[in-house]
Design brief:
The protein is α+β, with helices and mostly antiparallel strands. It has four helices and five strands.
């Protein structure tokens, strides 16, 4: 078995989306997912967010083959779930090198660079000005 084919027993990956950062630890197991010390269903109440987190595992058929420990901070629930998905994809790529092609094909390793635009002075938001008053 060469070093490229050798499976590592534990890997880590970092994912980012908006202002959220997720650190993911992947190890062989039975499909247990813990986010900030809570089960996945308890931490992410929204079903869409849960699906986003698990999508990388479902794509690679590793849902019941690995245990995940995720530490996530910053942002809201949507940003956190997206950060978790990217961290899981990066960690799975290192965990098993044969998974890199399907992960990359589905763009799970690409950072979503969209960020909130900053507020400018003299405006009510990033671009919205104040309402014109004639008198």
């Amino acid at each position: 078995m060469s070093t490229a084919e050798k499976k590592i027993n534990e890997t880590t990956g970092t994912g980012r989306r908006k202002t959220a950062v997720a650190r993911v630890r992947v190890r062989a197991g039975s499909g247990n997912i813990v986010v900030n010390g809570k089960p996945l269903a308890e931490f992410f109440a929204n079903e869409h967010d849960r699906y986003t987190v698990v999508s990388a595992l479902e794509l690679c058929d590793r849902r019941n083959a690995v245990d995940l420990t995720i530490t996530v901070s910053g942002g809201g629930t949507t940003g956190q779930s997206g950060a978790c998905r990217m961290g899981i994809a990066r960690a799975l790529k290192l965990f098993d090198a044969t998974l890199e092609e399907p992960i990359r094909k589905n763009q799970l390793l690409t950072r979503d660079s969209r960020m909130k635009e900053r507020k400018k002075f003299g405006f009510r938001g990033a671009r919205r000005g104040t309402q014109f008053s004639k008198r």
